[in-house]
Every structure is written in C-alpha cells, then in structure tokens.
Amino acid sequence: MKIRIGVGAGGASPSMEALAELVTGLDELGFDSLWLSEVLTGPVIDPVVGLAWAAASNPRLKIGTTMLLPGRNVLRLAKQLASLDRLSQGRLLVTLVPGLTYAPEREAIGIDPKLRGAFIDEALPLLRRLWAGETVSHDGPAGTLRDVRLSPLPVQQPLEVWLGGTMPAALERCGRLSDGWLPSLCTPDEAVAGRVVIEDAAARAGRSISAEHFGVSIGYASAPIDPATARVMAARRPRSLELTPVGWPALRKLIEQFIGGGFSKFVVRPVTTPASWRAELEALAAAVGDLQT
Fold first, then answer.
1. Other CB atoms within 10 A of residue 56 CB
2. pTM, two decimal places
3. In total, how many domains does the chain have?
4. Among 135, 193, 199, 263, which is least packed by CB within 10 angstroms?
C-alpha cells in the first residue's frame, strides 16, 4: 500500500499569509495534499476558491476537498470541478459529502437530511456522465438538463469521486457509486467493518473499489482541548471528543491502527487553528511523516 498523508486546514479560515505558509510547508515537508472542507455557515473559505489559489501558488501539491453535493446545481458543480482539475493539471482530489445536520448548517444546505442520500444517488451518475463528455438530458430532483455537454472536461479521465459517511445507507451507496471511501469519526474496528459492507455492495453492483482507495479523515489536537472548544465539538458531533486523538503519540498510534486495518490514505486536521502553520507542520512531520511510503 502507498501510505499518503494530507493535511486539512481545520475549522477556521486561514488568512492569505497563513494559507501560503501552509501550502509551502506541505510541499517542503513532503505531505501529499492540501484539503479544504465546505461548511456553508462555518468560518471557512470556499474550497473551490481556496484550492484554485493554492494550485496557482504551487505547481506540485495535490489539492483535495470534502464538498457538499446535496443542494447544488449539478451542471455548475461539474463545471467548477472540471475547471479546477484542468487548471491544476489533474491534481484535484474529490470527496463529496451529504453535509452536517446541526442548525443552522442543516437549513442552509436546503435539503432535508433524510433526502440528501437520494439526491446523491441521482446526482453523482450525472456528474460522471458530464465529466466523461457525454451529451446529457435529465429531468428529476437533481435538476433538468436538455442536451447538455460539458466543456472544458477534467484532465483526469475519469475524475474520481470518493464518498464519506458511516451509516448503513452511506456505506451501501459508497459501494455502488464511489471510487473510494473517506470517513471520519470512526474507530479502526468500525472502519474495517464498514469496508466489508462497501466491498460487498460493490460486488453486488458488479464493480470493485481499489484496495488503495480506503482512507480516513482524522481531526486531532496537538495539546489538550480547551473547554470552550470541547463544548462546541460535543454539541455539533457527539462522538467527536472521544474520537479525537490528543497529542502526537496518540495521533501516530491511531494512524498505525488504521494502516493495520488496510487503510492507506489520511487527511489529518487540527481541531484548533495553529498559531504557526510552519511549526505545526514540522511537528506533524516529525510525528507521522515517516509513515508515508
């Protein structure tokens, strides 16, 4: 397995100077990729805009996003991501997510959480057809298209799409539709069990997912979490505190456990924004950088 570690910008928008420091440090210290997540009501920059800036500022670093699919205009999203992949010369990594369920994010996404899975079921095949250069007509909850053909097309053919999620329906959908799995907030044992469900679903659908395409997104804390941050984390995602490694040895141990379960791609995200990204990345590289192969 090729072990790769990318870094997410965390839960707050970096300034232009901080993002530049992050991009430079990731490249110089040998990390695989920069990841920006989409949270409509959170203090984070739009991932398409941020990753376009990052790709322009560094010609080597891969750029990744966990981006919302429900509530989107499918054609517009297809064009945005295809354009970003073309401008970055094929360096884009895409994980599409249903979105968080706490208020006000729930309302801002614009689709009842119970209907988001069905939207993904319909929209993801449309994205694939558009990225492949097909002429597409469609009429349904994901939108209406009449003889639409996308241009420009992404450099990557196919442009792979990973999914997240750990609920049974999300695992089954991942097996049927995705190119890989990037869950968060799960234990190594839960991840291994989820992979079995995904691979079984893929087999029933007459397809397979590469063994190299199973990863985990891990929020971590390099130091004890302050009470205010802990309260916010617990309110938004109840298991987040118990599943967040605290300290570099704990983060390394957790990644090693996932590797032992057959997972090889990781996005690690500090739960609080570092005072210095360079110092954070140097400490992170010392703690886990040698795990990359």
1. 11
2. 0.96
3. 1
4. 135
Q: How confident is the model at residue 10 (pLDDT cuts 50, 70, 90)?
A: confident
Mean pLDDT of the 145-166 span: 97
What's the CATH number where 249 sits? 3.20.20.30
Which conformational region is residue 45 in: left (phi greater than 0), alpha (psi within -120 to 50 degrees), or beta? beta
Q: Is there a cis peptide before residue 98, judged by omega within 30 degrees of 0?
A: no
* DSSP 3-state of 35: strand
pLDDT in tens, 224-270: 999 999 998 888 888 999 999 999 999 999 999 999 999 999 999 99
Biggest alpha carbon–alpha carbon distance for the chain: 55
The set of residues, in sequence order, having a beta carbon less than 8 Å from that of 24 and lying 6+ positions away, is 58
Q: Is 28 helix (H, G, I), strand (E, B) or coil?
A: helix
Structural domain harbouring 27: 4-291
CB-side neighbour CA atoms (13 Å) of 266: 30
Alpha carbon 240 to its chain centroid, in Å, reads 17
Residue 251 · residue 201 · CB < 8 Å:
no
**Running DSSP on this structure, what letter comes out for residue 214?**
B
Name residue, tokens 């992050």: 22
DSSP element (H, E) containing 283: helix 277-288
Tokens 């886990």 found at: 288
CA separation for the pair 41, 259 (Å, rounded): 33
Contact partners, residue 281, CB within 8 Å, separation at least 6 = 7, 22, 25, 26, 29, 31
Distance CA 169, CA 165 (A): 9
Q: How far apart are CA 116 and CA 17, in angstroms?
A: 36
Report how far residue 8's alpha carbon sits from residue 59's, in angstroms, rounded to the nearest whole number: 18
What is the per-residue pLDDT across 176-205, written as a single tens digit (0 to 9) for each? Answer: 999 999 999 999 999 999 999 999 999 999
What is the end-to-end Cα distance of the chain in Å, rounded? 8
